[in-house]
Predict the 3D structure of the following.
Amino acid sequence: MRSFVAHCPELLTEDVIRKLMTPIECAMTMMSHIPSVMKAHGAHLKASAAMVRLRLYDILALLPPKTYEGSFNALLRELVAEFTLTDNSANTTTSLLRSLCHYDDSVLLGSWLQETDHKSIEDQLQPNSASGSGALEHDPSSIYLRIPAGEAVPGPLPLGVSVIDASVALFGVVFPHVSYKHRLQMLDHFAECVKQAKGVRQQAVQLNIFTAVLSALKGLAENKSTLGPEEVRKSALTLVMGPLDNPNPILRCAAGEALGRMAQVVGEATFIARMAQYSFDKLKSARDVVSRTGHSLALGCLHRYVGGIGSGQHLKTSVSILLALAQDGTSPEVQTWSLHSLALIVDSSGPMYRGYVEPTLSLVLTLLLTVPPSHTEVHQCLGRCLGAIITTVGPELQGNGATTSTIRSSCLVGCAITQDHSDSLVQAAAISCLQQLHMFAPRHVNLSSLVPSLCVHLCSSHLLLRRAAVACLRQLAQREAAEVCEYAMSLAKNTGDKESSSANVSPFAPGVSSRTDIHCRHQGVNITETGLEGLLFGMLDRETDRKLCSDIHDTLGHMLSSLAVEKLSHWLMLCKDVLAASSDMSTATLLSSGKDEEAEKKDEMDDDTMFTTLGEEDKSKPFVAPRWATRVFAADCLCRIINLCENADQAHFDLALARSAKLRNPTNDLLVLHLSDLIRMAFMAATDHSNQLRMAGLQALEDIIKKFASVPEPEFPGHVILEQYQANVGAALRPAFSQDTPSDIIAKACQVCSTWIGSGVVSDLNDLRRVHNLLVSSLDKVQAGKGSSSQLYRESATTMEKLAVLKAWAEVYVVAMNIKKEAESKPKRAIKNTDDDDDDCGTIDELPPDSLITLVQPELPTLSRLWLAALKDYALLTLPAEFSSQLPPDGGAFYTPETIDTARLHYRNSWAPILHAVALWLNSTGFTCSESTEAAAISGLQKRSTSVNLNQASGAVGSAKSLPEINKDRMHLILGVSIQFLCSPRPEEPIEHVTACLQALHTLLDSPYARVHIAEDQLIGVELLSVLHRLLLTWNPSSVQLLVTGVVQQIVRAAQDYLQEKRNTLNEDDMEKEACTVLGEGGDSGGLIPGKSLVFATMELLMFILVRHMPHLSTKVSDSPSHIATKTRLSEESARLVAATVTILSDLPSLCSPAGCMTILPTILFLIARILKDTAIKSADNQVPPPVSAALQGIKSIVTLSMAKTEAGVQKQWTALIRSTLACILEYSQPEDSVPTPDEVSMLTAIALFLWSASNEIIGVQSLQNGCMNRFKNALNSCDPWVQAKCYQLLLSVFQHSNRALSTPYIHSLAPIVVEKLKAVERNRPASNIELLAVQEGIKVLETLVALGEEQNRVQLLALLVPTLISYLLDENSFASASSASKDLHEFALQNLMHIGPLYPHAFKTVMGAAPELKVRLETAVRASQASKAKAAARQPAPAIHSAPTIKLKTSFF
C-alpha cells in the first residue's frame, strides 16, 4: 500500500483513498491491542510490530490528513508515545534533527563533516547520530523505493530509529490540523516528559521532542496556519526557551531554530518584541558561555525567519550586542555563535543593514588579524560575515567614491587574509566572498591570481573546497572564459618551468590523479597541455557529488560556448580523447613525457606506501577509462560544437571555402576539415556498450548527417563529401537493431536511418539496401502485434519503438515520392544531359531516380495499414478529456490503456510524417485501395494484433464496409487530425510538424476524390481556411505561409472544378440559362455570409498575407501612428508569396454568381492594381518580378470572365469597374518624381491586356483612349531601346485586334510616330543588339500595317516602308567597317525587301519606279550579297549558310 501511495499519486482519487482507509483504520485499531498481545506472546514480536507502525506512519504521511481526521486522537497518542520513548527502554534518538535545523548552522553543529567524501564514516562518529549505520537488512523495501534527489544514502537506518523518524515526520503533517485544545495538551505533556526523564535519557527525549516541535512548526508555516491562542503560545515558548541554556549545542541550535519558526508562525510584532527583549536582557546579564551562545543564536534566528522589515526595530540593539559579544576573546565559542548570528542578521536585513556596514567590517578585519588561526570556526564565521556584507553593499562596490573605495579595499583585504588560512573551510568561505565581489565589481577582482589558486584547489582532498572552487570558476567562465583558460594554462607553464620533476598526469586517468592529490598541494596542479578543460573533464570521472558535477558541466558548457569555435581542434581533441579512451589503451602516451616518468614513479611510490602500503610497480596498475557519464557529456559537447559552428560561419560546412580559408591563413580552423574525426567519435559512441552513450552517439551522428549531407566534394563534381563514410554510418547503425537493444535506442536508430536514406548521400544501391534492410527487420517486429511475448520493457517502450519505426518508414516514403516526382517532372532534360556529358563522369554513379521507391513499394500494403492505425490512435488520444468514454477499452493498435499518458508523448512526436505519408499513399492509389484486399495477405496473428484499424469492430465483420465509406472515414481522419493540430500548434512544436501537416493537406487535395469531398461540403473548406488563418497569426516563417497559400489554392481549385461540373450538367440538361448563371456564391443578391462563404474566408486569409508583406495596402495600417511609410523592395520569398496570393485572388470571381462577382471584384481589382503599382518597379536586368506577372495574369483572367458579358443585370456595374481599373492603372503608370521609376513595360502590358480583352463599348471612351495613347507615345519616345521593343510588340497586337473600331484610333494616332522613329534610324544606326531588336520590332509593325491596309492604299503604305528599309542598307565601302549590329540591320532590311517584293509585286514596282535612286541602292546591295555568298561557298564546301538563321532567330525572338 505504501508503494502504491508513493508511486502512483495520479491514481489516488477520492474513491480509492476511501477504499484504502478501511484497512488503514483497522490497522490503527490493531495498534492499540498489540501491547497486550506482546505481553501474552513474548517480546520477540517487537520488531514486527515496529515495522507495521513504520509502514502505517509512512502511508499516512503521504495521504491528505483530512481523510483520517476521525482517528487523530488515537494516532497522536501513538505518535507522542513513540518519540517520547514511553514504551521504549532504549534511549533511541531521531536522525532528523540536523536536517530540520537550517543548513547554514552547520558551522555550529559541526555537520560540515557531512559535506566530505567520507560522509558515511563521519556520520557514524557523530554524537547525536543514529546508532549503527544504514544497511539494507533494516528495511528490504529500500531496494526499490526512490531515493530523494541529492541524497547519497548508504541505506535504511535501524528499525528503532526509522520508526521514530517516521513518527516525527507524521507529527509535523498532522499537527496543523489538530484543535488548539489538543495542541496545548501535547505541549504540556512534552514539558512534563522532559521534567520526568533524567540524565542521558532526558537528552534523548529532549532531542526527539524538539525535532517533533520543529517538524510541527515547519508544517504550520507550510500550511500558513497560526500556532493558536495565548495559552498555546505560552506553553510552546516555555518549552522552547528552556533549552536555550542547555549545555548540548545541538539542543541550543534546535531551540534557536524553533524560536525563529515560532515567530514566523505567530507573526505578531508584540510577540516578536517580547522574545527579542527576553534575549536582550539575558545577554546583558548572563556571563556563562552556554546562555550567551544560545541567546545570541536566538536573535539571529528571529531575524532570519521574520525578515528585515518584521524585525527592523530591533536591528540596532541586536547588532550592538552581537558586535560586543564577538569581541569576547576569552571564549572562541561565544565569538563563533555571535558572529554566525551576525551573519544571519546581515543576510536577512538586506539594504536596511547599510548603516552598520563600516563598524561590522572593521570588527571583521580586526578579528581576522587577532584571532589565532587555530580557532577555525571563528574564522569560518568571519568569512560568512564578510560574504554577507559584500552582498549587502552589492553593486555599490563598483563606485569610485571615497567610502565605497574604503569598503571595497577592506573586503579585498579580508578575502586575502581568509584565502591564506590553512583550513580548507575558511578557504572555501574566502572563495565564495571573492565570487560575490566578482559578481558586483568584476573590474576589481584580480583573475590572474584568483584563477591559478582555484585550479590548485581543484585537486584538494576537501569536497567543500573543490565545490567552492568549481562554483567560482563557473561564474567566471560565464563572462571571461578566454581569460580563465589563459591564466590556468600560464599556471601549467610556470609549474613546468619551476619543477621539471612535476608529474604530468592525464586528466583522463582518474586512478592516477586521485593518488597524486597529496603532492598536488605542494607542486601546484596537474594541468597539462589540455588546460583547465582537460582537468575538469578528468574531475567528472572522480567526483560523485551531484552539485559539483553539475557545476563542472556548466563551467565546461560556458567555456565551450565562448571558445570552441576559435579553438576547434583543441576542443575536438578533448572530446575525442574522452570518447576514444578505452580500457586497453594506455593514455600515458597521450600526455606524459619520458623524462618525467622516473620522478613521477618515486612520487607515486610514496603515495602508494601511504595509502595502500603496497609499493608495487606503477606499470601493473590498470588504467581506468573515463566513466560513461563523462563520455555521454563529451558526445553532447560534440553536438553543441556542431551547432555553434553552424551559427558562426557557413565556411564550416563548405569544403571548398574551408580549404581556401586555410590556405590564406593556416591558423583558420574549420569544422568540415575535421569531418572524419566527427564521424569517428559518433561511431565510437554509437557502438559503445553503455546505452546512454549509444543514444548520445546516434544523436551526434544524426546531427552530422543533417548538417553535412549537402556539402559537395570539390574534387569530384556531382558528389557529396559524406559519400566516403557510407560504410561507417552503416556499421554504426547495425548494432542498434540487434534483438536485445532497448526501445529508446532502436527508436533513435530508426530516426538516424530515415535521415541517412533521405539525405540523398547514398549513391550505391547496395549500401542503400543494407540500411534499408535494417528498417525492414524492425518492421517485422512492429507487425508482431501488441501481445508479443518477448517483453523486456514496459508497454509504452514498445509503443515508442513501433511508432519510431513507422515514422522512419514514413519519412523514407516521403523522400522517395519527392525524388520520383522530380524525376517525372524533368525526364527530357536528364536524357539530354547524359548524351551531352558522356565524357563527364558526374552522372555515372547516381542512383536511378526510382530505386528508393522500388525498395519501399513491397512494404506499402503493410505500411499503409499500420500508418492508418497509428493515425487513428493519435486521433483518439488527442480527444479532450470529456470524450474519454469514446476511447476503446482495450487500447489502440499500438498502446495499452494503462500507459495512455506516456503513449500520448510518443504519438505526438511521430504523427506528422505518418500523416504526410498516408496522404501521399492515398493520392498515389487514388483512394482505390480497400482494407480488405490488403488485410487478406496478412496472417491471422497480425490481423488480430492490429485489428484496431479504421473500423471499430475487429475481425471479419469490419471488412464489410464499402469502399466509399472507408474513403470517407479516411478523409475525415486526415482532415480531423490536421485541423485539430493546426487550430493551436503549441509554440514548442517543431516547424517540421507544421510543414508536414500542410504538405499532407496539399498532397491530399491533389486527388480528385478529396477535391470532390471538400467541395461538396463547403463548411469543411471554410473551417479549414479559418484554421489556416489562425495558423498564420501565430507562425511567421515564410515557408509556412507559402505552404498555406498552396493549400488555399487547392481548396479554391477544388471548388472551381466542382462548380464547373455542376454548370456543365445543368447545361447538358438544357435547363434555363438563369439557373445556371445563379450557381456560385452570392446568388441573386450578391451577399456573402462570413463563416459560411468560402470566398469570404479565402479573401480574409489572403488579405492578411498581403498586409503582412505590404502594410500600406491597408488603410488601417497606413493611418496608424506607428506605421513608417517606407517602401522597400519585397524580398524574394515575399514576392513569391504575394504572387501566389494574387493568383488565388483572380481565381475567386469564377466561384461566384454574377451578383457575387460584383461584390468582390472592386476589392480584388483594387488590390491587383495596387500590387501592380507597388511591385512593377524598373530593374536593371529587365526581369519581371513574380507579383507583376501574377497581377497581369489576374487582369487577363478577370477581364475575360464570360458571365459578366452575358449578364444584362450587371453590365452597367461591370463597365464601371473595368473602366475605373484601367483609369487607375493609367494614373499609376504616370511617372512621378518621388517614387521609384515604374516599369513601363509591365504597365503597358496591363493596358494592352485591357485593349485586347475588353470590348470597345467599355473602354472606347475618349478620356481612356487618350490616356492609353499617351502611355504608348511616352514609351515610343523612351530612350530605353528595351521599352521601345516591347512597346512595338504590344502595339502590333493592338493593331491586329479583330475589332477594327477599337484598333483604328490607335493606328491613326500612333502609326505616324512609328514611321518617324524608324526613319530616324538611318542617321542613328543601332549600336547594340537590343537597339537592333527595337528597330526590327518596329519594322514588323509597319509590315503588319501594310498587310492590314486595303489594296488601293497599299502603294502609299509601301512608300513609307520600302524607302525606310532601303535607307538601312549599307554600301560596300561602309559595310566592311560597320559594327556587327549595323551589319545585322543591313541583312535584316535586305531579307525583308526580298520578301516584300514578291508579296505585293504591283505596288512594289510602282514605288521603285517613282524613285530610281532607291532602285540603284537595292540592286547594289543584292549584288554584293550574292557575291559574298558565292565566295563563302567556294571557301567552305559544307552547305552551312550562317547569316540567314541568325537573323531568323532574332526575328522570331518573341
Remarks:
- The chain has a mean pLDDT of 82.
- The longest helix spans residues 463-498.
- The two ends are 88 Å apart (CA to CA).
